[in-house]
TrEMBL record:
Family, as annotated: Belongs to the polypeptide deformylase family.
Region Disordered: start-end pairs: 189-215
Protein's job: Removes the formyl group from the N-terminal Met of newly synthesized proteins. Requires at least a dipeptide for an efficient rate of reaction. N-terminal L-methionine is a prerequisite for activity but the enzyme has broad specificity at other positions.
Classification via InterPro entries: Peptide_deformylase, Peptide_deformylase_sf
Organism for this UniProt entry: Streptomyces actuosus
EC category: hydrolase
Cofactor binding, per record: Binds 1 Fe(2+) ion.
The protein's name: Peptide deformylase
HAMAP family attached to this UniProt entry: Pep_deformylase (MF_00163)
Gene name per UniProt: def
Length: 215
């Protein structure tokens, strides 16, 4: 019988990350770690360490600030992500993007599949690609399956902006950045977003920068 895999290096790494009790450092694009994908979580950290790690992910996401964060973005190659969106946006933005508040939740071993064929395109940012945004066409509705941090099954349909967050964070766990799916002609600096494209939809940007949006 084969001996079980040695999990000590991973637990040691997580303990080291959590040592100072503050927000974790987010790995930027260009580091190979976010491109290697992740392994399925099956108890590698144990309940207590997992709870502390989830709390650190939550703190890091809120401090950044962001609406989602994958474990691999802090250098831990496990299939775990967190999301939370208070949706502090004007009514016209909320309506155009179907952006509604989402409570904090933990996604363990998540996967998604499209529901229907509708797709929408909006600017997205990423904590691992600071200072830049790009338009990404994504499924308007997805079915998420996985577990929560307590091992309870998740099977839920998300639509609108929450579906976008689910896809963005789950993609991270597969070694994908949002730029891999983006309309690269839409790539815009934070300054350009503030000065030109800070609108409910990217339609004006599509016309002026020369890229297509989903019908």
């Amino acid at each position: 019988m084969a001996s079980p895999p040695d999990r000590a290096p991973l637990t040691d790494r997580v303990e080291e990350l959590l040592a100072d009790g503050g927000p974790l450092a987010i790995v930027a694009a260009g580091d190979p770690v976010p491109r290697r994908g992740t392994e399925r979580y099956d108890g590698q950290l144990g309940p207590d360490l997992l709870a502390r790690f989830v709390a650190a992910l939550r703190l890091t996401m809120r401090t950044a600030p962001g609406v989602g964060l994958a474990a691999v973005q802090v250098g831990v190659p496990l299939r775990i992500a967190v999301l939370e969106d208070p949706a502090p946006v004007p009514p016209e933005v909320r309506s155009a993007r179907t952006r509604v508040p989402q409570p904090f939740r933990v996604l363990v071993n998540p996967s998604y599949e499209p529901v229907g064929t509708a797709r929408t395109g909006f600017f997205e940012g990423c904590l691992s690609v600071p200072g830049w945004q790009a338009v990404v066409a994504r499924h308007a509705e997805v079915r998420l399956r996985g577990e929560d941090e307590h091992g309870r099954p998740l099977d839920e349909v998300f639509s609108g902006w929450p579906a976008r967050i689910v896809q963005h964070e789950t993609d991270h766990l597969d070694g994908l950045l949002h730029l891999d799916r983006a309309e690269l002609r839409s790539l815009s600096s934070s300054e350009a977003m503030t000065d030109r494209w800070n609108r409910p939809t990217p339609r004006a940007a599509a016309g002026e920068l020369g890229f297509d949006l989903p019908e």
